[in-house]
Specification:
This protein has 19 helices and 14 strands. By secondary structure, it is of the alpha/beta class. Bound molecules: nicotinamide-adenine-dinucleotide and uridine-5'-diphosphate-glucuronic acid.
Length: 437
Amino acid sequence: MEKICIIGVGYVGLVSGAGLSEFGNEVTCVDLDEERIKQLNNGEIPIYEPGLKSLVKTNYNNKKLRFSSDINKSIKNSKIIFIAVGTPQKKDGEADLSYVYAVANSIADNLNHYKIICTKSTVPVGSGEEIEKILLSKNDAKLFDYVSNPEFLREGSAVNDFMIPDRLVIGSRSNKAFSLMKNVYRPLFINETPIINTSVETAEMIKYASNAFLALKISYINEIANLCEAVGADVHQVAKAMGQDGRISPKFLHPGPGFGGSCFPKDTLALSFLGTKNKLPLKTIEAAIEVNNNQSIRMVEKLIFLLDNKISNKKIAILGLAFKPNTDDVREAASRKIIPELIKLGAQINAYDPVAMDNFKHHFPDINYFNSWEDAITGTDACVILTEWNELRGIDLRKLKSLMSKPVILDTKNILSVSKLKNLEFKYDNVGRKISL
Ligand code: NAD
Ligand code: UGA
């Protein structure tokens, strides 16, 4: 088992650090954010991720997992260094690699003996080569091997995804690096998890191609859902039947207000940027992005229609602020696009989310927040569901109706029973299922 340093303790860094320590490695997680390191050393988990707290606690108590803000020392003391910092998008859609390159420079200054430098952050093809150049500018080539090891975990199920992945991708030219990486993931290797050993460039491309394909699938089903509405078909049955075909699979065929989160929006843009840069524009990905942008606008239009074009001064309850259930992450969430549009139209917003309200308050301090869906919908003229939390799936529709001023619902996640809403005489809309106005 290896001594590992993970740089960047966000969603990926923290889950990977905890997971790799559970695999038996000695892991130190480091971050520039000293407050975050202090919190972790006090046993507090700065993000909401099911199963993460107990995994961190067990391995911290076993001294397999440590947290530090001393980046230089932690690099020097480790053999395998994972880069897990953010790669947000720039204004033109290109991935911003400034955090990755800053880390590469810190590593370059601290290569005191042979190390593997491994990038887990999602970086465009060609970034590995740039990182190697930074390392070589201050060090001999014998002092390191470079590896690309993209991460495929999903927020909300990150621990499980990390511990039982569909595949591992290890991009490297060096056999020595590959066998050391196999050792890092030894339990997975023993369990015969598929391991793809490939070049750095191919590993980088696998990550973007995978994310963009999933995003494409979502935009595809959203377009089909919109067409279902026009022709009177039910998208759920369409998706279910399509999914029976093993070549298609039922996964990622759930229509909604458009994909959000910290990855699909930025990664589709970055891949599209790379295509254009190489004079090979990716028309399918560009279309997926455009469809996604239109989908949130379509949700606003649906609500305006439900409210007979009179949205000004209406009280609207928004249930669900996170970009998906089981996370407190609100990056690029549908709520971030839809709420400002409603505010512009003069609506008053009552918001509720089981875990994401604190994060949301940083962006929208002035809307009304409530600690239960019941309080949020009381006295409102319409209710919009934006995240498919289990708690919201189980909403008592009779109670909901009795608390609202007007029984108007836009269910953008299709979690409520159409027949129950019909029986209770709600004015109602959804995405791609029979509308009962
Ligand atoms: P994040 O924003 O949650 O965390 C990044 C962390 O890096 C922050 O805590 C920040 O303080 C720290 N950091 C920045 N610069 C630093 C430096 N120079 N030294 C030390 N720490 C530094 O990011 P994330 O969501 O974990 O994503 C990280 C990368 O992983 C991105 O490239 C992302 O695309 C990719 N990824 C994310 C997910 C996901 O579900 N979030 C899944 C797969 C891949
Ligand atoms: C996604 C990928 O699924 C991960 O494999 C990848 O590692 C990660 O991005 C990343 O690179 O960061 P994540 O963004 O956490 O994971 O969550 P997803 O479950 O993929 O959902 C993304 C968005 O798509 C959410 O807004 C979700 O509501 C939406 N979605 C998902 C749909 O609208 N329909 C679906 O059928 C599935």
